[in-house]
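Appendix B. One record, verbatim.
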Amino acid sequence: TKDADNYRRIWLYPFYYYSIMRQYLQLRASMVPYIYTMARHAHVTGVSMLRPMYYDFPEEDSAYTYNHQYMFGDAFLVAPVTTALEPSLNTSQKKIWLPKGRFVSWQTGELFVGPVEATLNFTLEEMPVFAVAGSIVPM
């Protein structure tokens, strides 16, 4: 980014935020085999690694309305939280659509059977990531 106030050096942030960023940077590093596999798949097939929901589920109306979530390769559905935390609860609410199939929450291990719309609360430490049940993820 060109924003001089946006630091890329995570150690410059207060420790609480630093530890959250470090956790996700470590997760990204552990996922390099998966990312490489999906990048190679994208190169061979021409299908992007990050895809809007309607690429994989064109027949579903919800795939067009839930435009703030995406498929990350074939194994993950990601729905980033982009709203501020509710101060009294210290969480943000996110409405998520899970298409037909079985999805497992990365954070909690909870199983969701789609199609379903779910409104869930997330802390700053949590990221709404759902693994497609049965996916093999090289890490």
